[in-house]
Structures are given as C-alpha cells and as structure tokens.
Amino acid sequence: MTSSDTILKRKRRSLILLLAPFTVMLSVFFLVPLGIMMVYSFLEPGLYGGVEWNWYPYNYGRIIGWPLNDYEEFEPIYLKIFLNSLQIAIMTVIGTFVICYPAAFWVSRMQGAKKNLALFMITLPFFANLLVRIYAWLLLLRPTGFFNTVLQSAGLIIEPLDLLFTNFSVIIGMVYILTPFMFLPIYANVEKLDYSMVRASQDLGANPLQTFRRVILPLTAPGIIGGSVIVFIPALGNFIVPSFLGGSKVQMTGNLIERSFLQSRDWPFGAALALLIMASVVVLVVFQLSRQAKAEARGVS
Amino acid sequence: MLDKILNSKIWATLFKGYGFLFLGFLYLPLGLIFVYSFNANSINMAIWTEFTFDWYLTIFGGASSQSSFDAAFTESPDRIFEVVKHSVIVALSASTVSTVIGTATAIALARYHFVGKRFYQALLVLPMIVPDIVLGIALLIFFVGAGFKLSLLTIIIGHTTFLSSYVFVVVSARLAGMDTSLEQASADLGAGPITTFRRVTLPQIMPGVVGGFLLAFIISLDDVVITYFIAGVGSQTLPLFILAMMRRGLRPQINALAVLLLLFTFVIAAIGLYLRSRKS
Amino acid sequence: MSFLKIASAHKAYKTPEGGLIHALDDVSLDVRNNEFLTLLGPSGCGKTTLLKCIAGFEDIDSGEISFEEQSLKGVPAHRRPFNTVFQSYALFPHLSIANNVGYGLDVTGVAKGERNKRVEEALELVGLAGFGSREPKQLSGGQQQRVALARSLVLKPRVLLLDEPLSALDRKMRENMQIELKNLQHSVGITFVFVTHDQEEALAMSDRIAVVANGKVQQLAAPTEIYDEPANEFVANFVGTSNIFSGKVVAKDGALLTIETANQRQVLATSDRFGRGDHVELVLRPEHLKLAPSGNGIPESCIDGTVEASVFVGSDLHLHVDVGKGRTAIVHHRHNRGDDGERIEAGTSVKLYYSPNAAHLIKAIGR
C-alpha cells in the first residue's frame, strides 16, 4: 500500500488468477489436441489401428493425389465427396439466406412485445436437439412419411417419391438446423438499417429495385456475410445430417472422417480429412476477419 | 417508396403471411413429432388410428398394450434412466465448471488491459468456431494418446472446453452493458475488490451468468457430435441413446422420447432467454 | 402559373394509444419560384410532415399538392423534380464521396463522362473539390452537410427541400453555413424550402417564413413582417420574445389608441385597424421597452416596476421587471462599456417607457 507499484502488482496477480483456468484448459484440451491431430495426419497408420511414428504424407496423397507409395492409391472419390460437401454447404448458405432475409425485415418492422415474441419464437428451435430436428425430417420425407402419405391419399402419386437420400434432402435438413445461425446476424443488421438512407436513395431518383440493389443490400451485407460464415462452417463438417437424410447415397467428408475413426480405424487418414475441413474454415475466418477490419477502418460496420 | 411500400397494406399482409410460413417451417416438423407421439398406429405413423399414451408409458416401463414385436424394440426403462442420469451428470458438471471459468475470464477481459488482449479474445472464441467433428476427433486422439479411459469424465472435460467459450461470450455481453463507475463508486465507498465483486459486480451480471449457465447446460445436454467421439462404452448419454435408436429404425417410442426432451430443453431455453433479455 | 402549390392539405396519424394527431390541418401554401421559404415551428408542429409530403415520402389524406399546375398525386418520390437534404445527411456509408454525389446520376443512367464532370462541378460548388475519393466517415459534420447538398444539387432539382440540415452543427459552423446556404441559393437559383425550429436561422436566411403550429400555417410573410407584425399570440411568442398585455381600446385620437389593460393601466399604441371598444393584445418587444432616465424629461406614458432579476448576456442586459399584479415584463437593455457604474440589480425600482409606434396590436381571440 506504499506505492502505486503494489497496486499494479496486486492487479496483475488477480488478472493471472482470473485468466489461468481458461488458459490452461484451452491449451491442454484444445490447442494441444488440435496440434496432435495435425501431427497424426502425417503419420503412418498402424495395421490394427493406432499409428506408426513415421513421416507419411500419403494420407493427403490419397485425397488429392500426389506421388504415392506402393500401398496407397489415389482415390478421386474422396475429392469428389469433399467437393460435394462444399456444394452442399454452399447450397445450405444460400437456402438459409433466402429464407431468413425477408423474415428479418418482417421482424424488424414489428413493435415492442410482438417483436420480442417473434424473436423468441425464432430463437427457440435453435435449442431443440439436433437429432430430434433431423428425426422430424425423416418422418416427413421417408417413403412412408408425411409428404408421401398425403400425396398418395390425395391420389396425386401412386408410388412414393424418393424424397430421402438425395442432396436435396440433406440440404433441407441442414437449412432446417442452421436457420437460426443465419437469421440472427442478418436481423441484427436489418434492425439497424437507417431508413433515411432508403429515403435518400428514392429522393435521388432510384426506383425501388435500384434502391434495394444499391443501398439496402450493401448496407445489410455484413450481416449476410457473417451469417454465411457461421452457417457454412458447421454445414461443411456435418456428418449427422447426411448419415440420416443422405443415407449411403449422399456422403459428406464428415461421414468419411467418422468412418475412418470408428470403423476402419485409420486415424491418420481421418485426421488428414479433418485438417482439410479445418483449412477451409481457417481460410473463411481469415477472410471474414480481414473484411471486418477493412470495414472498421472505413467506418462501416 | 420502399418504406411506403413496406408500410402499405398489401406488403404488410405479404410480410405477415411470409412470417407465418417461416414460423411454420420452424415449428411444423416438430409439431408433427408431437402429434405422432400420441398416434397408436405403430406400422405407419403418418396414418392416424387412435389416441394413445402407450409410447410415453413404455419409456417409463409401463405395460404396453402393443404386440410383443414392439416390446422387442422397446428399451428397458433402466437403460433410459441410466443414460438420462449420465446426461444430467455431464450437463450439470460441465456447465457449472464452464460458468465459473467463462465468467472469470470475461471479467478479466472486461476490467483489465494487457498486451495481446485482442489476440487472446480471438483465441477464446475459437472452440465455438472449430467444427464439432474436428474438435471431437482431436479430443479422441488426445485422450487415447494420453492414456485417459473414455468415460463420463472425458465427456465433461470435452464439453467444458467449448462451453466455457459460450459462457464467456454471454457474460462479456452483459459486462459490456454495465457501468464501470458502479464498481469505482463501491471502491470509493471503502469496499475491497472481493466485496465489490460480491455486492456490486455479481448482482449486476447475474442474469448473464445464469443465462450463460442455462445455455451451456442445454448445449451440453443436446450435444451429439463431440460426445459421439469421446464417450466410452459405459458412458452413453441420452442423445447417443436416441442416435442408436434412430439407427435401428424409426419406432413410435422415439416420438415420445423426443417430445419429452424437446419440452425439457424449451422450458430451460425460455428461462435463459427471458433472463438474458431482462434489463437490469 | 403557380409554382409549387399546397391546397388544403390534411394528414392525420394514429397514435399507439388509438388517438389521432392532425399533423397537417388544412394547410395551404404557395411556394414561389426562386424563393427561400422557411417552414418554422416547434417540434411536432407538422413542418417535417409537410416536407415529406412534398418530397413524396408520404401521402396527404386530402387536399392537393401540385407543381406547375400538375397534380403530384401518385407521383413517387424518385419521379418528382425535388430533392431533399436530410437532417442526418443520410450519406451512404458504403460509397465514397464522389459515388454519393454521383448516385442520383448513376441510377438515372447519365453517361459516365458527363456524370464525372457534373460530380466534380457539384463538389466544387460546395467547396469540396478533391474530396471525391474520401469516405463519408472521414469528413466533419460541416463537410458531410456540404456533400449532402452537392448530392442533391447535382441533379438540378426545381425545388430543394432541407430538413433541419443545420441542427447537428455547432453554433459557429451553423452561422457560417447560414450565410453560405443563402449565397448558394442565390447563385444556383433553385427554390429552397427549408425546415427549422430555430427562429434566428429562419429570420436570417429566408425570403419568406411560414410559421407552422398544430398542423396549421399561422402566418406566411417576410421575416421583418413576421417579427414586427406577428399575426397572433403564438407567432409573437415563438418568433423572438414578446411582452403581451390584453386590454380594451378606451380612447382613439387619430391613429393613437389608449388601451386599458386588465390591471387598469392605460397604455398607448398606434393602429388604424382597431377602434373604441375593441379587445386587443398589445405586443411589445423587449428591446422596445426602455428604462426612463432618472430626473427630468420623463416621457408621459411610463410603467413603474421593480427589477426581479437581471441577466447579463454580453450585448444586452436582460431585465425581468415586476410591473405589478404578478405581471413580469422582459426588457432588453443595451449594455455599453463602462455601464457598471450604475448596476441594475434585483430590487431596483425602474420606470419603463416605449414609443407607441413600437407597439403592435393583435385582435384578442374569443372576446
């Protein structure tokens, strides 16, 4: 208590005390495991699971086809599945955007208690169990499911339609579980949209379509991009949705990873696939952060 | 006249119509499970035969009036109680620990300045951004390599890691809205740091802390992917149990179980959302 | 041919409680070509609503707005030859200054070469040449204001509507912009319809002022007329400060009237509009009330009073003088250097007088 030095010291001590638990936990149970996984992806798979501690780049070779040794083969199917996963993830982003964008305007124009209720109703399904939500779509889409039964009893179709096990059914399931992720960032942006900008645009001679394209869309773009990133990431790595709604016909990289860990016990290969997904995520997050930093520098958020 | 158009009757009606479609998309699939869970038809759920409570009763070991064919599919109630117990143990411990850790970290970042703070902040939310499956297998490799036996403990550790990030974000938002002069006033009136925390800071951020806890609790209770990789043989949780049931085929019991789980999580989520929206 | 004409416009809003607010209540107004017209009124008086209806952002419930004899009913904002400078400026944050100014030209399909030329001219006009590549957030409030002006003027509107454009600026900047706006209006020769709640701003800039209150135009006249001959008590109080005494004309001698006020005081005024027996309100501006010199030469009509408070504001000394029966008169006494010898403090007895020509009479309402 004699000088400012002791106050500073005491402050530093409490700061360290507060930060220690998360820092330790994050290092031991997050960063180290990710590091080990990275190392694993370059190791030779053991014969009966496990790994041999040998430098082994062929796990990646199998996926993207660079020089291989005698045992491994380049399988274009892995790359194809990865590209299909990308496609499904992108379609999911587009699907959630199309659904959420008008809905955000709908809610933003409400008042008071009504608005809170609508926001509550839209947020609530986010908390429903993932499996239950997918299960609901199984009930809707399967051959003896709701849609087919209704269509059949209405006499519109005779044989049940193949609604399940298509890219479409996987995308629908993804859109369904990820809608809140897209809605909230878009809504936050639409909510603070300054309507005097819209009025200014009309006043300067722009018709409604021009106003939308040149003013409303660019001003709500940060929310759209933010929502797209946080929808894309879980969609890309998802394996639960395709394993139920895609069956054996629609495979995503997540299914390959799951299988190499829990069935074929080829952990290094699974780790390599996981790193492929991580790399896509990192690229996306870096892109988003740099865009945000640029926008902040320009004074637009 | 975009705002005039948006305000006009036709558009207002269109928007309203769309809004209800949107809510319908979100809720009708879940509503379907609810209706099916009372349908006695065990062959095709989409065709209504008669109202029954049997599916709920079978979950709790009640006598089934259905055929022995169904009974074969019905899990023993003991098994269900066991997995529910596992889920609750995991969710309670993981969310409690992560609430303490997340809150402490949030306070540290809101009230102290240090070099590399922004970087540290980015690091803290990383567990929320990394895809579940990547985190799941990374933890699996780590636990196996480090000689941990896969058990409830490994699940709790795994959950705590990423749930702390969620609590951190929720509590940080609360702290950001708090007036720092309150803490200075408390110190000025002679309260020490611990007293100030207990009597001023904590009551102010309490809704955030409780909200964060409930959010963590639900996410833990619902988690499928990460748990899927780091659960051991004897440590199945409720979602993993449902997953296994779904893989064996769709049975009406799943409807009943799903409805119970939905109701439970919705009630907790509603409390959490209410607390978060409440202004101090 | 009339230019911009508003004829018995009505507009009412529903309040959340279910009541009705008459934002425009039978408003008729003729805006002349090339004039600087100010809509002056307190907040919520309907002046901004009127501006929005002219711009085309809102419709009137009944009545008509026409431009050069053509009704504007159903003509959307983007097809009206008017442009608006918004209170918040409403500069597009995602566009550079040049693209903000060029926006109106872009959406109406003006060729690139001409567009760039006109954008540069417009920026030059408002003194911002060379600022085109900056972002709105990098400019000061005053500069943003100029960009908003350039953005509207570049389209060569027939009427420029300005919605309290100076309210966000600090006092010094505001006074500079008043002069600049007035000069700009002269040089571009475009009709300005300017909305403000600041009476000094209105008096300083306008060719004509329409004082608006409760959804009605209270008076439409040149600034001097508004100030010297307010049409009613509201205008007298809203524009400048007024001392208002109610009374009855008890004697008439040529144009000189003697008025007896409620507290049996006899005061003088000149007017040829009123006669014996008329109930009137006598309006006296604080600067027309003078302190009678002590000693000899006291003018004949004097009001005795006691100073309640004296506030020094720099150029003037504002005196609140109790003139009996609970009435307070406000007197602006010019301050001269070296006056502090005779400080006028609370409690001092004073005599007030005025020239009968300075008094303005309004017909008393409801009597």
UniProtKB/TrEMBL annotation, chain A:
Keyword check for Protein transport: no
Domain ABC transmembrane type-1: 82-290
Parts of the chain that traverse the membrane: 15-43, 81-105, 117-138, 168-190, 223-247, 267-289
InterPro entries documented for this protein: MetI-like (IPR000515), MetI-like_sf (IPR035906)
SUPFAM superfamilies on file: MetI-like
Keyword Ion transport in record: no
Predominant cellular place of this UniProt entry's protein: membrane
Subcellular location, record wording: Cell membrane
Protein topology in the membrane: Multi-pass membrane protein
Name of a matching Pfam family: BPD_transp_1
UniProt keywords, alphabetically: Cell membrane, Membrane, Transmembrane, Transmembrane helix, Transport
Family: Belongs to the binding-protein-dependent transport system permease family. CysTW subfamily.
Protein's name according to its UniProt entry: ABC transporter permease
From TrEMBL, chain B:
Record's keyword terms, sorted: Cell membrane, Membrane, Transmembrane, Transmembrane helix, Transport
Entries under InterPro entries matching the protein: Bact_Polyamine_Transport (IPR051789), MetI-like (IPR000515), MetI-like_sf (IPR035906)
Every ABC transmembrane type-1 domain range: 84-272
Regions crossing the membrane: 20-38, 88-110, 122-144, 150-171, 200-219, 225-244, 256-275
Compartment list: Cell membrane
Topology term for the membrane: Multi-pass membrane protein
Keyword Translocase: no
Membership in a protein family: Belongs to the binding-protein-dependent transport system permease family. CysTW subfamily.
PANTHER family named in the record: PUTRESCINE TRANSPORT SYSTEM PERMEASE PROTEIN POTI
Protein name (database record): ABC transporter permease
TrEMBL record, chain C:
The protein's Enzyme Commission number: 7.6.2.11
Domain of life per record: Bacteria
Enzyme class: translocase
All residue ranges annotated as the ABC transporter domain in the record: 4-239
Molecular function terms from GO: ATP binding
Role of this protein: Part of the ABC transporter complex PotABCD involved in spermidine/putrescine import. Responsible for energy coupling to the transport system.
Protein name: Spermidine/putrescine import ATP-binding protein PotA
Organism field: Ruegeria spongiae
